[in-house]
Amino acid sequence: xxxxxxxxxxxxxxxxxxxxxxxxxxxxxxxxxxxxxxxxxxxxxxxxxxxxxxxxxxxxxxxxxxxxxxxxxxxxxxxxxxxxxxxxxxxxxxxxxxxxxxxxxxxxxxxxxxxxxxxxxxxxxxxxxxxxxxxxxxxxxxxxxxxxxxxxxxxxxxxxxxxxxxxxxxxxxxxxxxxxxxxxxxxxxxxxxxxxxxxxxxxxxxxxxxxxxxxxxxxxxxxxxxxxxxxxxxxx
Length: 236
Prior knowledge:
By secondary structure, the protein is of the alpha/beta class. It contains 11 helices and 8 strands. The protein folds into 2 domains: 10-21 and 97-235, HAD superfamily/HAD-like (Rossmann fold); 25-91. α6 links the parallel β4 and β5 (141-143). α1 packs across α2, α1 (25-36) packs across α4 and α3 (61-69) crosses α4.
C-alpha cells in the first residue's frame, strides 16, 4: 500500500529532461566540446567519454569534465566549450518545454506551493534556456550549482532552495522531481520526502527507484496531481 503524500510546500524541479526537452543537445554539445580538446569523433576515446556523459546525466557538468579529463585546466576548457556549444544550440531554437511542464509549474504555484527550477548547467546556459522558453518569471527561483556551492548529487541546491525561499519549516515538506538517478540521490540526501522520477529524460524507472525515487511518473505534468492530492488529504 502506498503511503500518503505529505503536505509539500517547496518543489525543486530539474530542467533538461524533466521540464525541458533538449532533444539530445547535451550529447551534441559534449561532442563539440570534446573535439575542440582533440577527442576525435568516432574514436574509442570519444565513445567511452560520451558513454560516461550519458551515465552521469544530471550531475554538475564541471564535475563530469573533471572526471573525464583529470586536469582542472582541461576540465575548465571543456566546460567552457560545452557551455558555448549548448548555448548556440539553444539559441538556434533546438529546445522546447516538456508538454505540460509550464502548466504544472503554474498549477503548483497557484495552489500556494513554491517552485524552484534547478540545473547542472552553468548560470549562463540556464539563463539561455529560460530566455529561449520565456520562462524567466515562471518559477519563484532558479538555481545552478554555483549558486549553491556544489551541484548534484550533493544536496546543496535543494537545501539552498529551502534557505533562500523559506518556503518550508521541515525538509520533509520538500518534493524533488527529475529524470536522472542524480536528481533522486540529491533529493534523498536533502531529506525530501517526495522524490518523483520522471520518464521523459535520461534514466529509466529501475535506475530512478534504485537511487531513491519514491514515485515514478510518466512526466512532470503528473506532478500536480500527486502533490495536490497529498495536500488535500493533509488539510482534511
